[in-house]
Amino acid sequence: MSAPDAIVSVPVNIDSATGVRAAEIRLSYDTSVLDLDADDIDFGSIWGTGSDTQVTANVDDAAGTVVIFVSASSALTDVSGSLVELPFSVANDAVVDSTTVLDLTQVTLNEGQISVDPAPVSGSDSTDGLITITAAATGDDSISGFVYADANNDNVVGTGEAIPGVTITLTNTSTGAEIQTTTDVDGSYEFTDLAPGDYEIVQSQPVAYLDSGVNELTVTLVEGTALEDQNFRELGLLPQYIFNRLHTNTVLPVGSDNWNDAISDINTFAESTTSSSSASSEAASSSVLAASTSSASGTEPATTATSDSTASGEPLVDESNTSPIASTVSTVATAQAAMGSPVGSSDDDSDDTAAVDEVFASNLF
Ligand SMILES: [Ca+2]
Ligand SMILES: [Ca+2]
Ligand SMILES: [Ca+2]
User: Fold this and answer.
1) Please, which residues bridge with residue 141 across strands?
2) Distance 319 CA to ligand 3 centre (A)
3) Per-chain residues with Cβ under 5 A from ion ligand 3
4) pLDDT (tens digit per residue) in 331-363
């Protein structure tokens, strides 16, 4: 079984390899579904560590035929296993639930001195293999982190440093499968139901913030793990938005719902003044695509990256595209009007006061 866009390793097996020291294997395959690179063909399990095993393969990828010679310096004992392993790539447009035949056309052992029973023939016979294209399986691993403005410059996500509403894109680098989510009110994001593999995490720069310069992370997700703290650190608000932030911190308890809403508003207004050319990005949506893995047996299905998060459709705006002064002025006015929260909210407490002091203590935020 294998999923579209996956690699499936197909063995050519032998029940008893007594006396075998050389084999010639010929087979053909459907080039519309499968692809094979001669350099990737390897000797099979019967040859052991294979320190002196040699493989020569010729692949005609137009005709879909393969000829493989494999040999060792001494004859094998009574072992069973695979003569060779062929890592086929399954086409990304292969139809799920369809099957494709690997037609074993000839196997010759020790230049014909050892007979093969049943002997493969060109066309259908009992030695042929069948690959079933399956829907990609789902993993149960995860990747998570935070986006924050590091006001006190300690590289830690602190009170009042969360940046909500930031778009994070996750790409499985082996398949190109891509999914998106946005950060929550606490600045966190999480991708769940992931398969193990190599991923690239990309942050869409929140335009109101001074970029720390690291907007891409490359990670390897190991099976059975939850990869945490894949964080994106911003250096603080850009100068044209600091008035809004000070106003917000003055009238609203840091970390309160109203405060989070106000911070989101700052980002939203910042983007609205700079995103006039990016309206098309509204169409962002969560997608589910297959990832690929391979296994020695060729029976392990490929994996899928999925997310239960919904893409925000937030405009993706280049940070260099900051607003001109004129539009910034109007943005500030609009933001203040939109906040409209009463001074001195009822859930104020000493922690909030301390946090406000902390934020004010920084010239960056
Ligand atoms: Ca055959
Ligand atoms: Ca911090
Ligand atoms: Ca950044």
Assistant:
1) 194
2) 9
3) 205, 211, 215
4) 333 333 333 333 333 444 444 444 444 444 443
Residue 159 CA to ligand 2 centre (angstroms): 8
d(CA 167, CA 165): 6
Strand pairing class (137-138; 129-132): unpaired
Ligand 1 centroid to Cα of residue 62, in Å, is: 19
Q: How far is the CA of 147 from the centre of ligand 3 (A)?
A: 8
Report how far residue 248's alpha carbon sits from residue 359's, in angstroms, rounded to the nearest whole number.
11
The pLDDT tens digits for 182-198 are 999 999 999 998 889 99
Distance 11 CA to ligand 1 centre (A): 15
Q: Which domains does the chain have, with CATH numbers?
A: 7-135 (2.60.40.680), 138-361 (2.60.40.10)
Is this model's pTM higher than 0.85 or not? no
Distance of alpha carbon 29 from its chain centroid, rounded?
30
Above 70 in pLDDT, residue 258? Answer: yes
* pLDDT per position as a tens digit, 91-123: 888 888 889 999 999 999 999 999 998 999 999
The alpha carbon of 83 and the centre of ligand 1 are apart by a number of angstroms equal to 16
